[in-house]
Automatic annotation (TrEMBL):
Phylogenetic classification of the source organism: Bacteria, Bacillati, Bacillota, Clostridia, Eubacteriales
Keywords linked to the UniProt accession: Methyltransferase, Transferase
Keyword Cytoplasm belongs to the record: no
Gene Ontology MF annotations: methyltransferase activity
PANTHER family linked to this entry: RRNA METHYLTRANSFERASE 3, RRNA METHYLTRANSFERASE 3, MITOCHONDRIAL
SUPFAM superfamilies xref list: alpha/beta knot, L30e-like
Domain RNA 2-O ribose methyltransferase substrate binding intervals: 32-106
Membrane-spanning parts: none
Protein name: RNA methyltransferase
Length: 260
């Protein structure tokens, strides 16, 4: 284990960049997972931990968990709480932060099974929404999540933390566009979630598998090209005066109905 006391240490500076820069995460093929539970989720899912940062207080408080993390991490660095705060993305850091190799789950989409049920996200931008959607997708046992490349970075620390470890467990793939994914997989029955009185009410839909529900951008909804590529249009009927639902709330309702 290495003890670091300077904020100018190259490992610390790299972690600070990974926290704030999607470009750096893409370039390096690394991302951060913060918090004891998320770090343990990474270990149990078989993720490759390049570096574990830990404070002395955290080591002493969670000795058994630290021992497992230390065993699995390639490098372990102990820092003081001031330096840890520079790398942290939370207001009350727990003292555990892992630098992890980005996940490759593309092989899980090589074969589309006949009973598969997917969620596709078209330009979803809010990291909190994306994290919550991934958490819900895992809870409902969705087969996988497809993201257009213009969605917010799935490795954003807020996404990783908000997913409560789901990012490590649920299959996902990033595609140039949802339209391209659907065109490449014509056997998938696609359902565009829209705010449109002409669309079929969600409660009346009989999902034909394999299928995918498409959820769009928080403000603009699904792109026109994506909607055109979908075979069906569905909507969540609302009795109140609200014009639309939060993207993560809508996604949860849609997934619940699809997985029934």
């Amino acid at each position: 284990m290495l003890f670091v006391t300077s904020k100018d240490n190259s490992n610390v500076k790299k972690a600070v960049k990974l926290k704030s820069s999607a470009k750096e995460r893409r370039k390096s093929g690394l991302f951060l997972a913060e918090g004891l539970r998320i770090c343990m989720d990474a270990v149990f899912s078989g993720a490759e931990i390049q570096t574990l940062f830990v404070t002395e207080k955290a080591m002493q408080k969670h000795g058994e968990d630290f021992a497992l993390l230390e065993e699995k991490a390639k490098n372990v660095i102990c820092v003081n709480e001031n330096i840890f705060a520079l790398m942290s993305d939370t207001q009350s850091p727990q003292g555990f932060l892992s630098v992890i190799k980005t996940l490759d789950k593309t092989n899980e989409f090589d074969t589309i099974k006949g009973d598969s049920k997917y969620l596709a996200l078209d330009n979803v931008q809010d990291p909190s929404n994306l994290g919550t959607v991934l958490r819900s997708a895992e809870a409902f046992n969705v087969s996988g999540v497809i993201l257009s490349c213009d969605c917010c970075d799935i490795y954003n620390p807020k996404v990783v933390r908000g997913s409560m470890g789901a990012v490590f467990r649920i299959p996902f793939i990033i595609k140039s566009s949802i339209k391209d994914f659907l065109n490449e997989n014509p056997q998938i029955n696609s359902y565009a979630a829209v705010v449109n009185s002409d669309a079929v009410s969600l409660t009346d839909v009989k999902f034909q598998t394999p299928c995918a529900i498409v959820v769009g951008n928080e403000g603009n909804g699904i792109k026109a090209e994506t909607e055109k590529a979908c075979q069906n249009k569905i909507t969540i009927h609302m009795e109140g005066k609200a014009e639309s639902l939060n993207a993560s709330v809508a996604a949860a309702i849609l997934m619940w109905e699809m997985m029934k």
